[in-house]
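pasting for ref
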Amino acid sequence: MGIIKILIIVTNVSMYTSGKYSTGLWLSELTHMYDAAKVRGYDITIASPNGGDTPVDPESLKFFTLDRMSKKYWNNKTFREELKKTRSLKEVENENYDVVYVTGGHGTMYDFPDNPVLQNIIAKQYEENKMVAAICHGVSSLINVKTKDGNYLIKNKKITGYNWFEEGLAGRKKEVPFNLEDTLKKRGSRYQKALIPMTSYVVVDKNLITGQNPFSSKKIAKVVVHELEKKSGKSSMKPSVSL
């Protein structure tokens, strides 16, 4: 395997439809994966449905949510500029990547589920037996993806994502356009979640890797790196499933 190529997908949506709250990318769900890829010399592409700026959820920048890693990148002017100049999904649709990683933040619930280009990128990646990873609300990108046999990609797959109780803890039940946990179950997935809400939890089902919430950011980055290194015969971690 040559240089590993990773496509990181972020949202363009900055506001809930009610107009009451700002939203966007949850920063840590990008920074931990970005850093893990950067220090290993991966080729990183950040893309969004429309290209251009990805707004960052102000809630993810507060002192109790902005971890050390995210703070380091948020204070980096070059990184901030990179977030303003994402490529569009249409631009990268036909490019090849070793892993497609979909970040979260409530904004993703608006511009990910029904995006045909994103669905095509994910379906193609998965059916070529290459890695698809998603975290938190970014898992909403998977709910309408179908494989060539006409079935939902997540049918009978072990999967996790932001649950409804956590949505209540965040005070966003009345703001979100749908119940992600319930939708994942209705699609026939084998949904799993941590016993304790808002704790790190990652699920691996072959080449599909999902993280439950922002607190899973560090772990999912480690798991993705491990799975990539395992494929290339350079594994340095023990396997991690349903962490």
